[in-house]
Design goal:
Elements lengths: L19 H12 L11 E5 L4 E6 L13 H19 L3 E7 L8 E8 L29 H11 L3 E6 L2 H19 L1 H10 E2 L4 E2 L3 E2 L7 H10 L3 H9 L6 H11 L3 E7 L6 H20 L2 E5 L2 H10 L8 H18 L6 E9 L6 E2 L4 H4 E2 L17
Parallel strand pairs: 1-13, 6-8, 7-12
Antiparallel strand pairs: 1-2, 2-4, 3-4, 5-9, 9-11, 10-11
């Protein structure tokens, strides 16, 4: 974990420190707004004695094709730990984060909130709840050079931004639509998508509200019908109709933005520490973009499927989606250039108003458990394997 511990932020010193338990709950309340794939929120918290709490992580590799090696969940956990540091600065403390016994599939940490009267809040902390994913079209206005430099600085020294603008952005948009087709024809992707859409609520605590997807009413009805049964989805695919949502979900949004950015690690990101560091960097980039009035949508499919292809880790039973992934990855790597094999994240950015619908978070009572002196709390039954 040493790669991420130096990023501790310093707390504001004006006024009296909050009581320990209140400070813990406020930090958790802020930090739980960290991003996670499809709003899975792969974390729980256990209150301990004093100004301490444990973070219990998990991954979704057994259920989610986009997380077969746990990296997507680890990226989210890195964003969470960075959010804890930022939120601690708002309550006059700094966060000391120590790894506990665990493994890559169920990592755990103890967080101690230590008072530091001389410190100040991190400006990015105010963006923790404002940051969100927007899948709607953005302005195509180019990002000013100074703004891009500020976003690059937010990543820190171990990651760099690879910008796709102009004609390269349009080529990336077409590739994104190609990867979107894979998501619609692969049964492994269908098994994920059928569970993650909230068809009824504008603000969903554990899924993606359909209103946040930017679909027209007809496409929305077709998708809801098709996602109810794999045979329906296959029928639409055979008729040539099943992949049409990708134009609204993938192509048009990628065209309608100011830039596409890919984030590459300086070294091979194939470790838990490296993924946690990447998650922290991505969270700071995203918060800095929010503070600048930008909206962001992750384009993670090329990153994760590209990694599977390069490592020869076949993730689809059917031949067609796997062959398509191989072809698209070769084109994506040529477009991105140096660093494509070390990508940890990609997204489109642009100026836009906040979306009218978004994912929110589970209630505090559902994610915060226990109390007392628990330096190494047991894993709650809901998070145990089996």
């Amino acid at each position: 974990m040493s790669a991420i511990l130096p990023a501790i932020t310093i707390a504001h010193g004006s006024g009296r420190l909050l009581p320990d338990r209140q400070a813990c709950r406020q930090v958790i309340e802020r930090a739980r707004w960290a991003p996670s794939g499809d709003n899975t929120q792969p974390w729980r918290f256990v209150l301990a004695e004093g100004a301490r709490f444990a973070v219990i992580g998990r991954d979704t590799r057994d259920e989610v094709v986009y997380d077969r090696d746990g990296r997507a969940s680890q990226l989210s956990l890195g964003a969470l730990l960075e959010s804890i540091r930022l939120a601690a600065s708002e309550v006059g403390r700094r966060a000391l984060i120590t790894p506990l016994d665990g493994d890559q599939r169920q990592p755990r940490w103890m967080v101690a909130l230590v008072g530091d009267p001389a410190a100040r809040p991190d400006p990015l902390a105010t963006q923790l709840r404002r940051r969100c994913t927007s899948r709607l079209p953005f302005s195509t206005r180019a990002l000013p050079t100074g703004l891009r430099s500020g976003l690059e600085a937010a990543l820190g020294p171990c990651h760099r931004a690879l910008w796709l603008t102009g004609a390269r952005r349009l080529r990336a948009a077409w590739l994104n639509a190609g990867f979107g087709r894979i998501r619609l024809i692969a049964r492994e992707c269908y098994q994920v998508h059928r569970h993650i859409i909230d068809w009824d609520d504008r603000f969903s605590m554990d899924r993606l509200p359909v209103d946040s997807l930017g679909l027209d009413p007809l496409t929305r009805r077709i998708m809801r019908w098709a996602l109810a049964d794999w045979q329906r989805a296959e029928l639409l695919n055979r008729l040539g109709c099943g992949t049409q949502p990708r134009w609204q979900l993938d192509l048009l949004p990628a065209v309608r933005c100011g830039a596409i950015v890919a984030v590459a690690a300086d070294r091979d990101p194939d470790s838990l520490d490296a993924q946690l560091a990447a998650g922290a960097a991505v969270q700071r980039l995203w918060l800095a973009a929010t503070a600048a009035g930008l909206q962001l949508q992750p384009l993670y499919t090329p990153v994760v499927l590209g990694r599977y292809v390069r490592e020869g880790r076949r993730c689809f039973a059917a031949d067609a989606p796997w062959r398509t992934a191989q072809t698209l990855t070769a084109r994506w790597d040529r477009l991105v250039g140096d660093g494509a094999d070390r990508l940890v994240f990609a997204a489109r950015l642009g100026f836009a108003a906040p979306p009218p619908a978004r994912s929110i978070r589970l209630a505090m009572d559902e994610v915060v458990m226990g109390s007392g002196n628990a330096s190494t709390p047991p894993l709650p039954p809901a998070l145990r394997p089996g």
